[in-house]
Every structure is written in structure tokens, then in C-alpha cells.
Write a structure and sequence with these properties.
It comes from Pyruvatibacter mobilis. It contains 22 helices and two strands. By secondary structure, it is mainly α. β1 and β2 (about 385) form a beta hairpin.
């Protein structure tokens, strides 16, 4: 196994993280926190130095990486980059354990939205730089997640992603990323443009700059980190809530549509099966959810709130709509929805709508064969027929998600986490939907609700490490994580 490609990609990733320190530093200066600005600038310079040294050490050693090397490089990025992003958390609050800071950095970069650190600030201004840092990491993580899916996983055809693969136009520049620059630029323009539109919408609604930046960055990345622990959409007004929901839907949609690598028209969006499934899940799912709650629990969840909850859950951001919703929506329903997740090549986590659709279609095909054993049943997704090898990959992904959930649950219980909370936390981590833990009960049997972040903070360091690994496995696809382990095992035995 050759490792120069890992060094090249890791150096590029650390360079992005180093540059990202500028935004919270500027915010710190604007709110009168020069001490925090110095911390972010010094941390950024340290990260930039490491990135430069790493890039210098591997220059001129590039080659065309194999599939195993690409997946291994991908895993290394998601494991190592948060270690540098976590330094700022410790710098702002020296009492924070580094494991907690690493957990928060992994959570932000994987757009999971779980928090283990909760520094005590004397004012909103003092908390603003760290709020922006979390949001910036989420925003970077959302972009990196789409690039991961589009440029690596889809090109390898992992677990059905070959059905969603778009041709990558040849680049006009040299270097390790030369071939991918046009695709990366188109994706960046779409990602940044949608974020900017959301930010402008929130500012027009009268929201202050810092929470508007934090919410727009988090929503497009379908992350669950909010400006305040008590945040709920119902409390900010109809227009900003609508803007955030639209950003969540955009983030949970295949970014090939946004970036124009497919035909970018309203019809092209509706031609995409995953877009139709997403909109149907929000609309029909919201109506069914509100009706079931009204009939069986006597609760008062409105249809509009239920639709917003479905958008929040399917996007795997789990942005709270109302505090009462955590008690009204059953835990199993919330876990099932985030397990399904959003579209492929989106910022959403979960198994993905395409794979669920393929599993249902194959099941229907097998049922048809029972009544017509010699019949020919044509099945396709988005106009593309899918074969048995593709279905093997999808089934392998489904089984590996379940196995990973079981192993993560067992790991958490070894560190004293209650069984029900361990199940919820494992699905939350693997689906990159951290706030879904709010639907789980605490030791006294009370639903956690908006106190879910305190539940993460109270876990043992070992439990947080287990969850951090699960978050990374969920973001790079569990099947790819298993492939990394297999590749390393093969290398060791060679």
C-alpha cells in the first residue's frame, strides 16, 4: 500500500481547516473578544504549518491511487482532520477534555450535530465565535460529504451509487485534484449559492447576523448544531422557519441537480425519483404522523408542524420544531425515519432513499416471481435498470448498517449507557442525526427532549470515542469503512 496520496489529500483538508479559522476570528473581533480571535488565528497558523509540512513531504510522489487507497485516504481525512479542528475548543475553554473536543469536531464535520462540550459564557457575544466555529465546521463537512459521495464512492459504484453516478469532466489543470476541479467548482458554487440565499432570507426576516450565519450554514449541511440549546423552529417565526426548512430540503436533495451536472430545471428535479420520495415523505408522512398522534395519543401536533418534523427527520438534521414534538413522536418512528435518511450525494445521512427504494423494488420483483416463475420482470430506478450485483451491494450496505448499529450499541452499554439510550445514540451516530437522541428516555423514563446534549456530555470518554467512530463510519458509508478494515488486513498479511 502506497501512502503519498493520503498525505496529499490530508494536507489539502488541513489547509481548508486552517483557512476556516479566519471566520470565527473575525467574528470574535467584531463582538469585542480579541482573546478568542488570537486563539483562532494561532490555531489556524499551527494547522497551516502542519498542512504545509505534510504537502512538502509528499510532493512529487503522486500516482493514480487504487480503489483501496482512495477509501483509506478518505477514512484518514475524517479521522485526522477533526483532531486539528478540536484544538480551538480546548483553547477557548482549557477545562474541556480533549476527547470531548474531538467528539464535537467529529460531530460537526460529519454534520451529526451532537455536542459534548458546553462552556459557560457570560454573554451572547462571548459565545458567538465558538458558535460560528461549530457552524463553519458543519458547513465544510457538508461540502466534503457531497464531494466524498460524488468523487469517490459513486465512482467506485459502492452499494448502488453507480446508478447515481455522473461523468466527471476532465480538468484543465495539473496536480492531484486537476481532473476534479470543474466538478468541485460547480458543486462549490451551488453549495455556496444556496447557503447565501438562505442567509439573506434569514437576515431579511430580522434575525441577527451571528445566528443567521449559524443557522444557514447548519441547515444546508443538514447538521443539528443550533445557536442555542433551547432553539426550536416554532419560536423564531413562520418566515425564518420556512427558510430553514427549504434549506434542509435542498441539503437533503442530490447536489448533482443543484450543481447543473444533470439538467437543472424544475422538471429535472421532479424527474429524480429521490426528490419525489423526499417530497412525498414530507407531505404524506406529515399528514399520517399528525393523524396517528391525534388518534392514538390524543396529542395536538398540527399537520404543518408534523411536515416540518418530517423534513427535519428525513434530512437527518433533526432540527427541533417544537419541544413537545420530542414527547409526541414515538422514538421508533423517529429512528426509522433518520435511518432511511435523504437522497444520495446529499449532505443528509442515513441509508438513503435510493437504497430503500431498490430494496422495495426487488422485494416486489421476487413476489411477482412467486406467481409467475417464468415471467420476465423489468425493474429500474430513474430510468436505469439495476442488476443482481448492484442489489448485492445494497443488501450488504443494509446488513452492515444493522451490524454496525448492534456493535455500537454493545460498545455504549459497556460504558454504562442504558440500553434504550444506547440504541438511539447508535442510530443517531450512524445516520449522522445526533439530536434524534432527544426522543429517547433518560434513566428516570422521561424523554430527553432539548436536554439531549447534556446526555452526550454525561457519557464516558470511551462511549464518546465509540460514537465518534460510528459518526465517521456513517459519513463515509459503513460498507466503505468495512472495506478499509479489509484492505488493512490484507496489507498486514501480505
Amino acid at each position: 500500500m502506497s501512502f503519498p496520496i493520503i498525505g496529499v489529500v490530508l494536507a489539502a483538508s488541513l489547509s481548508v481547516i486552517a483557512f476556516a479559522h479566519l471566520l470565527p476570528a473575525v467574528i470574535a473581533l467584531s463582538v469585542g473578544q480579541p482573546g478568542q480571535a488570537v486563539i483562532f488565528l494561532m490555531t489556524g497558523l499551527l494547522t497551516a504549518f502542519i498542512a504545509g509540512a505534510l504537502a512538502f513531504s509528499v510532493r512529487g510522489q503522486g500516482h493514480r491511487p487504487s480503489a483501496a487507497e482512495r477509501i483509506l485516504a478518505l477514512s484518514t481525512i475524517w479521522l485526522v482532520t477533526p483532531a486539528f479542528a478540536a484544538i480551538a475548543f480546548v483553547g477557548i475553554d482549557p477545562e474541556v477534555l480533549y476527547m470531548d473536543a474531538y467528539f464535537d469536531a467529529v460531530s460537526a464535520l460529519t454534520t451529526t450535530g451532537a455536542v459534548a462540550t458546553n462552556p459557560s459564557f457570560a454573554s451572547i457575544e462571548e459565545a458567538a465565535p465558538l458558535t460560528i466555529w461549530r457552524a463553519t465546521l458543519q458547513w465544510i463537512g457538508g461540502y466534503a460529504s457531497v464531494m466524498t459521495a460524488m468523487l469517490v464512492l459513486a465512482q467506485l459504484g459502492l452499494a448502488g451509487l453507480s446508478l447515481r453516478r455522473a461523468p466527471i469532466p476532465p480538468g484543465m489543470t495539473s496536480g492531484p485534484f486537476g481532473r476534479y476541479w470543474p466538478a468541485m467548482l460547480a458543486l462549490g458554487v451551488a453549495y455556496g449559492g444556496i447557503t447565501l440565499m438562505g442567509l439573506v432570507g434569514l437576515l431579511i426576516s430580522g434575525m441577527p447576523l451571528v445566528p443567521a450565519i449559524a443557522l444557514s450554514f447548519s441547515a444546508i449541511a443538514t447538521g443539528g448544531l443550533m445557536p442555542e440549546s433551547s432553539f426550536a423552529l416554532a419560536a423564531i417565526g413562520p418566515f425564518p422557519a420556512l427558510v430553514i426548512c427549504l434549506l434542509l430540503i435542498a441539503g437533503a436533495t442530490n447536489f448533482l441537480r443543484h450543481a447543473g451536472m444533470s439538467r437543472r430545471t424544475i422538471a429535472s428535479y421532479l424527474d429524480d425519483p429521490e426528490v419525489r420520495y423526499l417530497l412525498l415523505g414530507i407531505a404524506a408522512g406529515g399528514i399520517v404522523l399528525a393523524t396517528v398522534i391525534a388518534l392514538f395519543s390524543g396529542g395536538g401536533l398540527s399537520v404543518l408542524d408534523a411536515m416540518m418534523w418530517m423534513a427535519s427527520l428525513l434530512s437527518t438534521s433533526v432540527v427541533p420544531v417544537t419541544e413537545e414534538g420530542f414527547r409526541q413522536i414515538p422514538l421508533l418512528v423517529a429512528l426509522a425515519v433518520v435511518f432511511v435518511g435523504g437522497s444520495t450525494m446529499s449532505t443528509a445521512g442515513g441509508l438513503k432513499l435510493m437504497r430503500i427504494s431498490l430494496l422495495i423494488k426487488q422485494g416486489s420483483r421476487e413476489i411477482s416471481r412467486l406467481s409467475h416463475p417464468h415471467g420476465i420482470v423489468h425493474t429500474e430506478f430513474g430510468g436505469r435498470p439495476f442488476s443482481i450485483p448492484i442489489m448485492r451491494g445494497v443488501w450488504a450496505m443494509f446488513v452492515m448498517m444493522l451490524v454496525a448499529a448492534v456493535l455500537t450499541t454493545l460498545g455504549l452499554t459497556l460504558y454504562g449507557v442504558s440500553f434504550e439510550m444506547a440504541i438511539a445514540a447508535s442510530i443517531a451516530a450512524l445516520s449522522n442525526a445526533g439530536p434524534v437522541l432527544g426522543f429517547a428516555p433518560d434513566a428516570a423514563g422521561n424523554v430527553l427532549g432539548l436536554d439531549m446534549m447534556q446526555a452526550y456530555a454525561a457519557m464516558a470518554p470511551g462511549a464518546k470515542l465509540v460514537l465518534a467512530i460510528a459518526m465517521i463510519a456513517g459519513r463515509i458509508e459503513v460498507l466503505a469503512a468495512a472495506a478499509v478494515l479489509a484492505a488493512l488486513r490484507t496489507t498486514d498479511s501480505a
